[in-house]
Amino acid sequence: MSEDFKSGFGRRVKELRELHGGSLEEIAEDAGIHRTMLGKIERGEREPSISIAMGIADALNVTITELTNPESFRTPEKEQVIEDAEIMDELPIDGSAILTGVEQTYENLDTIDFALQRRGLDPLAEQFDEYAALSTVIGEFFASGVAEASDGLYEVNAGDFPDLISTGKRSGVPGIEVKVAMETNQPKGHLPKPGMYVVVRYVLAERDKTYERDERKDTAWIWEVRMGRMDEEQFNESDTEGDSGKTATFSAAALWNFDCVYLDPDLIPYARYESKDAEALRAVQGQETL
Asked: How many CB atoms lie within 10 A of CB 132?
């Protein structure tokens, strides 16, 4: 951990403790550490481990991201969920589950980035040789968030199709496959499998959400989530050499027929879109190809 980061972390701990109203002794006890250690952390004299930092965050009733990196604390806006999407009538969940999926993705990614930053390493988005690996991580975090907010109706089906399956709590709960793609790319799979899908698309922007098309930075931001059903004939099959064995790609028409259930208009990566462009925004929400 750099000296600047360590001192900044200490100042933030002290600031939040004072806002919380707890004494050094009280917060240290709740965090499971000695008050002397907490005092040294606040003064920037002691480097906290990940477990200690998480204990302090719990004691202060904040997330680890709020504690460690408040200027980049990321949370999706409720207004970015499209509550009246027709596809939601076919599902036992509502827009809050989609919002939780995005929120948990951000929180988990930011927690990992904190751990990497503490060790002087690059953010997670720069740790992979292929972005497909980052997409897989995003998909797993998103699925976990949706399951968590499903009132016990869904669980993650680790390593199998579909990604989200019914817990059996209620009958008629459809399985949901989670697919992730970067920017304007179409999601891919090993085989064309019909069923219900949720497609998460993201861009790589600055930590402060500054985004310029064609410039990939180090922080993954979800710009769109779509949901719909796929039939086998809606996949484009390909045997592209070097494509990691992936042979089935969503057709563009199929994806645009999905309902948009979440949209961050500041991050849309299409060429004709400009910030505050109401026509382009309506096109995305209205399932028109940009």
From this structure: 15
